Amino acid sequence: MHALHEPPSSWLIRHAPLIRRGGIVLDLACGSGRNARWLAEQGWQVEAVDRNEAAVAGLQQISGLHAFQADVENGRWPFAGRTFDGVVVCRYLHRPLLPLLVECLATNGVLIYETFMLGQEEFGRPQNPDFLLNANELLDVYAGRLAINAFEQGVVEIPKPMVIQRICAIRGKPGRLMP
Questions:
Q1: Contact indicator for 117, 131 with CB cutoff of 8 Å
Q2: Which tens digit of pLDDT belongs to each residue from 111-162?
Q3: Side-chain half-sphere exposure of 90, counting CA atoms within 13 A
Q4: What's the rounded Cα separation, in Å, for the pair 80 and 100?
Q5: Contacts of 93 (CB under 8 A, 6+ apart)
Q6: What distance in Å separates the CA atoms of residue 164 and residue 173, rounded to the nearest whole number?
Q7: Rounded-to-integer distance, Cα 59 and Cα 57, Å
């Protein structure tokens, strides 16, 4: 464990075993890389992206991890035509990207998504509703497109009190409708 870094998401740790061992995982909006570091340490090949150049600079020397700076909200989508065995998003929301994440998943690829939802404004940041999911929003976006493996929403106490929504979903074979 890296003393200077926050531990990885418990949601990620719980669901990462569903991702193909040694596969390629995208950590979108990776920040300082708490999840990307952990994934690389566990043997996955990690593509980590964030718009903060200083944050990704701190990830450059980690084996199994390729980190780079990109503004995925305003720039060109850097993953067009690419697929990943896993896509991880934690504490980040930009709604126009939600459908693109399905396209980024390989067959049997796993989406592990966790971010804040309405109600978080009572606990702290973010408070802007643009950055807070509505109740069941991740279910509404991904049901019918991915097989929902797990879904939770509400108040959590660890690592600190916050209101979050999280989903783990798997992409089935092309042309096959998901339940």
A1: no
A2: 999 999 999 999 999 999 999 999 999 999 999 999 999 999 999 998 889 9
A3: 20
A4: 9
A5: 115, 116, 130, 131, 132, 133
A6: 30
A7: 5
